[in-house]
Amino acid sequence: MTINETVDQIIKEFNLFDDWMDKYNYLIEMGRSVPLIDETQKTDSNLIVGCQSRVWLSSEYKDGIIYFTADSDAVITKGIAYLLIRVFSGHTPTEIVGAETTFLDMIGLKEHLSPTRSNGLLSMVKQIKLYALAYQVKEKNS
Amino acid sequence: MIEISEIKIQSVRDDFPILSRTIYGKPLVYFDNAATTQKPNAVIDAISNYYRNDNANVHRGVHYLSQYATGAFEEVRKRIADFIHAGTPNEIIFTRGATEAINLVAWSYCETFLHAGDEIIVSALDHHSNIVPWQAACERKGAQLKVIPVTPEGELDLEVLNSLLNSRTKMLAISHISNTLGTINPVADIVAMAHAKGVPVFIDGAQGLSHGPVNVQETDCDFYAFSAHKMYGPMGIGGLYGKTVWLEKMQPYQLGGEMIDKVTFAKTTFNEIPYKFEAGTPNVADVMGFGAAISYLETIGWDFIITRENDLLQYATARLSEIEGIKIIGTSPQKAAIISFLIEGIHFFDAGTILDHMGIAVRTGNHCTQPLMEVLGISGTLRASMAFYNTRQEIDKLVDGIHRVKTLFA
Ligand SMILES: Cc1ncc(COP(=O)(O)O)c(C=O)c1O
Q1: Predicted model pTM
Q2: CATH number for A11
């Protein structure tokens, strides 16, 4: 699936719920299936700053594709991390760098995922893009 | 103990327009009063009235409006002095808030009185605002920062404090009330203890002045800092009480404007206190709002405030304690209506996010008290901080909300 296709899929899934409680329930469930970061990767350099909960995000680059793993001590944050990983993991640096990130507005959790919230969402997106950019530069130089 | 009717509570709530708004379609339950209190109409009106009718710069003009504004401005200074029982209005300096007041003293006092090898004592209970400026002063001067430890109940360990006080101690800086745990520190006893060793005491009263009467002369503290926005007044204004003997000997903190006496390129001399510490055009409109807040508090009366807040504290403590897995952090018998707690197995961020969706505003995180969190071995708490306009029904909603959170994350 392309990044845009995954985004459309997620929007569809969230549109199934009218009630905010159900949306959170779904997010919480998803948090439980996040591809967990290896314990040894829970380092300070993989810690995302600017969140009330601790979030770690790690990346691996294999055959031109980036794979992300994450973990957090808060379940909602984990759910958010999972959404991002679903969208971005398994894509090339170029695809990730060029991707739109406005989809979070559209799944009806907007007020919670806005930049002013200390859930680390924005920092996570930024970190994902930074990883992609770094791999892109590396690729060009090699 | 006074009896308070539902009608009286509702009429007080009606003074605060924001309390009738909804959040996500649900009535707002505002339990973040330690961060900032809501503002009554009287305060909002005083600010807009000032800009509509009375605006002029203070201390500068012979014209009517300037003189009127100056008079009104100085009148608020006097009202604050009376409110906290300062010796004279000259002992009240307007600042942006408690943080600026602390920074003022940590710079101006330390510039004159702190030397290499000296010590300043702070507490592990305190807000970053009452730690970091002192830490920086110590670094600047080559002095040492000493820390009063906190007991598991969330009280200052006074025995250790006593052993820390010595002839090298140049300041003891503590808070009146802990913003995180609600602990009311025995400030008068602490001042007596420090003065017995010749040590002046700075009190961070950011949380102190909204929960009960303060008498700086009786307490005999040397400095007392406060923020209007935590006492139903506007943001961006607050103040510092300082004993005349200290203020007169301290260096000005910022320079320029009305704080100057005479300027030549050879030498500049400074105005008297309090003006020496008020550089630039002050925040006159918010001073008017602050004055209105004090009038409002006086009209409501401490009896009402204390009775209401005690009732809410006790009711909330009892109701929260009934919930399985709730742990209240900070169990001093001397507490203001501030309750920090944890829900077993659920991150405070998760709980706070869900409660928010139910219209319940609680604070989550470390509450700008990271050293305290470290002592307690936690990374943060949920905090419900109440004011006299809150109700038992709102506490019931919080309790229901916590039950829903527990179901959701089970
Ligand atoms: C105990 C305490 N000290 C200092 C401050 C800082 O107050 P302000 O931000 O109004 O300067 C606060 C506010 O959170 C506080 O609770």
Answers
A1: 0.92
A2: 3.90.1010.10
Residue B289 to residue B280: CA distance in whole angstroms: 19
pLDDT tens track for B69-121: 999 999 999 999 999 999 999 999 999 999 999 999 999 999 999 999 999 99
Which tokens sit at A59? 């990346």
Q: Say yes or no: CB of residue B206 within 6 Å of ligand 1.
A: yes
The number of domains in chain A is: 1
Q: Whose CA is nearest to atom 5 of ligand 1?
A: B206
In whole angstroms, give the CA distance from residue B141 to residue A65: 54
> Quick one: tokens of B347?
């991150």
Parent domain of A91: 3-141
Q: Is the Cβ atom of B130 under 6 angstroms away from ligand 1?
A: yes
Map out the domains of chain B with their CATH numbers: 6-39+301-408 (3.90.1150.10), 45-298 (3.40.640.10)
Residues of A in contact with B355 (CB under 8 A): none
Tell me what ipTM this predicted complex has. Answer: 0.84
Question: Pairing state of beta strands B169-175 and B119-123?
Answer: parallel
